[in-house]
Write a structure and sequence with these properties.
Beta Polymerase, domain 2; 10 helices; 48% helix; five-stranded mixed β-sheet; 17% strand; globular; alpha+beta; 2 domains; 191 residues; single chain; 7 strands
Length: 191
């Protein structure tokens, strides 16, 4: 979790602000699979209207780029794909924030997130591996970037014993991701 520790600059502030989140994307795939370099942390958050100002307080403009509260308010009301970025000035690290709306996969993932702790007491809430795999299948379908297949292959190789394939098959069927899953799982995306 070493590289993931650098992203605590975002997750600790969300926790202090009382904002529910889960890490996903490449950071989550590294925690379940094979490490690779990234400057971005993907986070799904629950952000009711009364907590929008908590984002501005948690990420002050002298240390972070964050959009104005009006923009965050608009994004938090989107039923699907509400999104904004926060960037730490000193390090250039970026958090891609996806606001939970009515996305059933996000609802499923947030209900099953897990706390991954380090011996030093630091940790973060992380999406279940099945969620990460399904999202990466969707991203592959949208952009055809092989990094998603590679990430999935690493997860299947390293964490295959904790991944529930029945859950993956169910979501693959629901979201029509059969072609993408066939590519990603045969043989573990050519690691």
């Amino acid at each position: 979790m070493e590289q993931a520790n650098v992203f605590l600059i975002f997750t600790e502030r969300l926790e202090q602000a009382g904002i529910c989140y889960m890490a996903t994307g490449s950071v989550a795939s590294m925690l379940y699979g094979i490490p690779r370099f990234t400057h971005d942390l993907d986070l799904v958050i629950e952000l009711p209207s009364h907590q929008v100002s908590a984002i501005s307080k948690a990420f002050p403009l002298d240390a972070f780029y964050a959009p104005p509260e009006e923009v965050i308010q608009v994004e938090s009301h989107r039923p699907h794909r509400g999104h904004f970025n926060i960037i730490h000035h000193k390090t250039g690290l970026k958090a891609d924030i996806y606001v939970h709306g009515r996305d059933p996969l996000q609802t499923w993932g947030l209900a099953r997130k897990a706390r991954i702790e380090q011996p030093d007491g630091n940790g973060m809430w992380v999406a279940p591996p099945e969620y990460v795999i399904i999202r990466k299948l969707e991203y592959y379908r949208e952009g055809h970037s092989d990094k998603h297949l590679h990430d999935i292959g690493g997860m299947l190789q390293i964490s295959g014993d904790i991944i529930d394939h029945a859950i993956i098959r169910d979501w693959v069927e629901r979201l029509d991701l059969q072609k993408q899953w066939a590519l990603a799982s045969a043989p573990f995306a050519t690691l």
